[in-house]
Automatic annotation (TrEMBL):
Cofactor note: Binds 1 Mg(2+) ion per subunit.
Name of the protein this chain belongs to: Amidophosphoribosyltransferase
Physiological role: Catalyzes the formation of phosphoribosylamine from phosphoribosylpyrophosphate (PRPP) and glutamine.
InterPro entries reported for this sequence: GATase_2_dom, Ntn_hydrolases_N, PRTase-like, PRTase_dom, PurF, PurF_N
Catalysed transformations (reactions): 5-phospho-beta-D-ribosylamine + L-glutamate + diphosphate = 5-phospho-alpha-D-ribose 1-diphosphate + L-glutamine + H2O
Protein's GO biological process: 'de novo' IMP biosynthetic process; purine nucleobase biosynthetic process
GO MF annotations in UniProt: amidophosphoribosyltransferase activity; magnesium ion binding
Classification of source organism: Bacteria, Pseudomonadati, Pseudomonadota, Gammaproteobacteria, SAR86 cluster
Gene name as annotated: purF
EC number from the UniProt entry: 2.4.2.14
Amino acid sequence: MCGLVGVVSSRDVGVCLYDSLTVLQHRGQDAAGIMTCDNGKLNLRKNNGLVKDVFHSRHMRRLTGQMGIGHVRYPTAGGSSPALAQPFYVNSPYGLSLAHNGNLTNSKELSRDLFKEDLRHINTDSDSEVLLNIFAHELQRRNKMKPLPEDIFAAVAGVHNRCRGGFVAVVMLSGYGIVGFRDRNGIRPLIFGSKVVEGRTEYMIASESVALDSQGFTIERDVAPGEAVYIDVDGNLHTQVCTDPGEHTPCIFEQVYFARPDSLIDSISVYKARLRMGEKLADKLLKLRPDHDIDVVIPIPDTSRTSALEMANSLGIKYREGFVKNRYIGRTFIMPGQAQRKKSVKQKLNAIDLEFRGKNVLLVDDSIVRGTTCKQIIQMARDAGANKVYFASAAPAIRFPNVYGIDMPSASELIAFGKTEKEVEELIGADWLIYQDLDDLISSAAEGNPGIKQFECSVFNGEYITGDVDEVYLKRLENIRSDAAKKSKKKGGGKKT
């Protein structure tokens, strides 16, 4: 999962892009990058690390220009070399730079076609570079000295004709403008907004609405499935749906985990969706155990707080903060390796003994992925003196890999794969485990936008909506992206970049 932003303004955009990336930091903590365009001259800074560590004053002074794009990354494909930080750039045509979120499910075939047929060379194993070169080739086919909006939309249509999967991108055309586009099913999120400064309209395109809010932009709307939004250097907005859109099927894991609670994703308030998740999970708990003996509800910070609070309210039980979080440790399930995840849990959380001692506690988390975190946290609760430790997941059991840009590539690394809820309960060491029902999760999100009839729920039900994912593909993905594969690749040096 990654975060991206693009801005077209009448003023230097470097600081605006930096500030926007800081509020999108939760979407990627591996690398960050900004590229600006100053009267045709490109300025780039990117590297591994958090936004605050990648950009210093000396870098910001060089990031001049009235338009630019930014990116925060954590790797789902490829490695962790600084060369894989985005934006990526190609010189022809015009000078194009790209920031991308998602995953192309036919990246291997596209890479082959780019080399053999389009005569374009790929320097890394990143599907983002593949996407950039596909767009560049399709735009070059228009053979124009100056690209017009119809040329850009035709290039995006060419991308849709060739690329499959879940993806969004912002592409900057040096000296001309910025285009943002979204996959035909709208799996990954993209939104744009505007503000008027000294009589001129400025625009921002971003992964989440919080980026717009933080910089004073007013939300226009979400980019529609299959749509492209182009803002030229003069601040003119052009939009067009560039392919026959499929059923709008956004990723429901945005609502569960990735998006900030103060964001709107496809017009759905993430905060309210998570409140409804807590309410519905409380209803299920009362049906299963009306005579429960829970004394206190404690969230596992931070993402589960909203659901846990509403769960406690619905159950009529005290809500307490039982864990103190070290805010300088990143999200654990996206840590690059099991050993690092185990170490990070202990660095990340510390229990407040008085909230646990002698009590029957219900711990609430947003989801259970590999099980590393919740197993250790349950033990922490017991060590702090808890009498019984129950565990509630605001999401259903995750049993299948994700192929659309979330780092869950291998089913064998998912604790619930091939197991019953009772078996997972025993593995994590809980006295009782309760999962959200998928129908309840879907209704929690759908209530925020009745226009969305279905969600991308493949990690829960194994249904891949692009129709091109089979066992052969999943096995190939596991061989490339599992923890074992990444460890082997790192040891051997991986692909040279």
